Amino acid sequence: MFNxxxxxxxxxxxxxxxxxxxxxFVLNKKQVGGYDKxxxxxxxxxxxxxxxxxxxxxxxxxxxxxxxxxxTLIIYxxxxxxxxxxxxxxxxKKFQIEKRAVVLGKITKEMPTLAVAGTHGKTTTxxxxxHLLKQSDFKITAFLGGISENYKSNFLYDGKQAxxxxxxxxxxxxxxxxxxxxxxxxxxxxxxxxxxNEENLNKSFQEFADKISSTEKLFYKKxxxxxxxxxxxxxxxxxxxxxxxxIESGNYHFxxxxxxxxxxxxxxxLPGKHxxxxxxxxxxxxxxxxxxxxxxxxxxxxxxxxxxxxxxxLKTENLTVIEDYAHHPEEIKAVCQAAREMYPDKNIxxxxxxxxxxxxxxxxxxxxxxxxKFNQVVLFPIYPAREKPIPGINSEYLLxxxxxxxxxxxxxxELYQTIKDxxxxxxxxxxxxDIGNEVEPxxxxxxxx
Length: 449
What we know:
The longest helix is centred in the middle third of the chain and has 17 residues, at 273-289. The strands form 3 sheets. Strands 8-7-9-6-10-11-12-13-14-15 form a 10-stranded mixed beta sheet, sandwiched between helices. A 6-stranded mixed beta sheet has the order 16-17-21-18-19-20, with helices on both faces. It is an alpha/beta fold. The protein has helices at residues 16-27, 41-48, 85-92, 100-108, 122-135, 192-195, 198-209, 273-289, 293-301, 329-342, 357-362, 364-371, 395-400, 415-422, 439-448, and strands spanning 7-11, 31-35, 52-54, 72-76, 96-99, 113-117, 140-148, 153-157, 162-167, 181-184, 218-221, 230-234, 240-248, 251-258, 261-268, 311-315, 320-324, 348-352, 376-379, 407-409, 426-430. It has 15 helices and 21 strands. Strand 7 (140-148) and strand 8 (153-157) form a beta hairpin. The chain has 3 domains: 7-99, NAD(P)-binding Rossmann-like Domain (Rossmann fold), CATH 3.40.50.720; 111-301, UDP-N-acetylmuramoyl-L-alanine:D-glutamate ligase; 311-448, Protein-Tyrosine Phosphatase, Chain A (Alpha-Beta Complex), CATH 3.90.190.20. It starts with 6 loop residues before the first strand and ends with a helix. Helix content is 32%, strand content 25%. The radius of gyration is 22 Å and the shape is globular.
């Protein structure tokens, strides 16, 4: 499909989805380069693979190999601004330009594809699924929306027996895919800057589900409406059920029931009922794809998680620091449930950086409710990403909706002193912006003091 292309240049190469695609093309013998606004761990990894990356929006920074429109493909992400000078140059020179989602869609046509969609849960579920299939001896390709702790990568590539892909609903990207199997973990309202309302979002998910030819190959969380496939549930009736859950030494043990079969004593280490659902979804897909049960049991037991999904950053006698990508009210609720389950009698602080003005506006009340469940709440200013400010929508407004007396809005530089003053047992660092950059400095300050 890309045989005539020799060179591929990525606009926004450091993003989680773009960097996985860049690695795919490097391994398929293409010359790869790209632009991004800032240097990250992901972009540094790409540089180590020989990918030339420039961080300035200047046409003269583009390596000469990528200046011929005949054999060069430009791949961009919707996060890239339209007025980017490099982008305008490629458009004016009539280069072949494709969205990341379109290119990924073309790749999924080349091999059996298992796609995981959902407003939340898709990254962890797709990472579990990729691990299950790989450890069940399938030769797989996987494009993940997070860094798998098992492989320290968002991209796996050892063959084409199966392709595992995170199906992103943002910008309706997942409608470009050609999945053979699919799952939908959740359909809570989100990305209303794109969809305008919940009805449009749900229609998009239904359109995605309609890509699956057989109801035996579509899996979804029980309770989601207007879908026709196999249901997954935790401790309630469904086609695939996680049941008889118990916790031993900080790990879940459970039975998995389907088609009148009961498979006993699966072991899983990720905390929270939402993660049990993710595991059930991945198991259902892997079993239906033909993976052997004993291999699946061994594989699930060895799954280590996804970076920035309930990731432990510090464990001392007096303080535990956990980092999580949660940036939607339902995700914050799920993280709170997991934390309460693991630390039932502890004083738990949420440090939250809201992501996007539009999301904060759309779900302000729900954010207030979900954050109110913590003992202490600390807010950072809103991370704007691609957006301009919306009058009246800020972290002060959000803080006013938190029904919790122990709450505070701070600047990042005040974080260590705030934690020292408030003395929590557990700190949860939550958000999809750049709050992750504050974790290492915080821990360094804790050790120094």
